[in-house]
Every structure is written in C-alpha cells, then in structure tokens.
Amino acid sequence: MEKLKERWGLTTNRQLVVILLVFAITWSTAAKLAAPVTTFLGITPQHEWYIYWPARILFLFPIYQILLILIGWIFGQFQFFWTFEKKMLTRLGLGKFFRD
Q1: Is 75 exposed, middle or buried (CB count within 10 Å of its CB: 0-12, 13-18, 19+)?
Q2: Rounded distance, CA 3 to CA 11, Å?
Q3: Is 48 in a helix, a strand, or coil?
Q4: 63, 37 in Cβ contact below 8 A?
Q5: What whole-number distance in Å separates Cα of residue 23 and Cα of residue 29?
Q6: Which value, in Å, is the radius of gyration of the alpha carbons in the chain?
Q7: Residue 90 half-sphere exposure toward CB, CA atoms < 13 A
Q8: Is the C-alpha dihedral spanning 19, 20, 23, 25 positive or negative?
Q9: pLDDT tens for residues 12-32?
C-alpha cells in the first residue's frame, strides 16, 4: 500500500482506500451500463461473440472514463482522477485535447 501511496502522491491510507473504492465502483457500474447501451443499439448476446463483445468493450471504455471522473468527484477526489484521466488519455494519443 505504501508503494501506491508514494506513486500516486497520497498522504493517508484513507485517501488510498477511497481511491480504490472509486475504481471498484466505477468498473462495476460501467460493466452494468454497457449491456443496456449495446442492447439499445441492437447488439445483443444473440449476435456472434466476435460482434457482441468487441462492441460491448468499445462502449465500456468511454462509459468508464466519464464515470471515473463523476464518481471520483462524488467521493471528493476529482483532482486525483482528473489528473489520472489526462495521463491515461495522453498515453492513448489523445493528449492534444488536454494541453494547458
């Protein structure tokens, strides 16, 4: 736990627990929301697996990104997650949208 605190620049165990909790809640929520989104678009589990699962994962990614910021804000950790998002999206080649 100390390595994570140091890597993320956290000062207390409470911060670490809240951040890990936000990651867990966000992942669970995004996974739950991806199913109705794909169903709404007419992509159901009855489709071939190579259509359904890539589509679901494709929709899962932006849902997760938005929820991470929103749930992080609800738990009072907006700045941490905003910085985390900018770093992750920059690594994916979308850094031009986050120039200060």
Answers
A1: middle
A2: 12
A3: coil
A4: yes
A5: 10
A6: 16
A7: 11
A8: negative
A9: 999 999 999 999 999 999 989
Packed helices 49-74 and 78-89: angle between N→C axes, nearest 10 degrees: 140
* DSSP calls for 9-33: T---HHHHHHHHHHHHHHHHHHHHH
Helices (H), 41-91: 49-74, 78-89
CA dist., res. 51 & res. 27, Å (int): 22
Whether the pTM exceeds 0.85: the reply is no
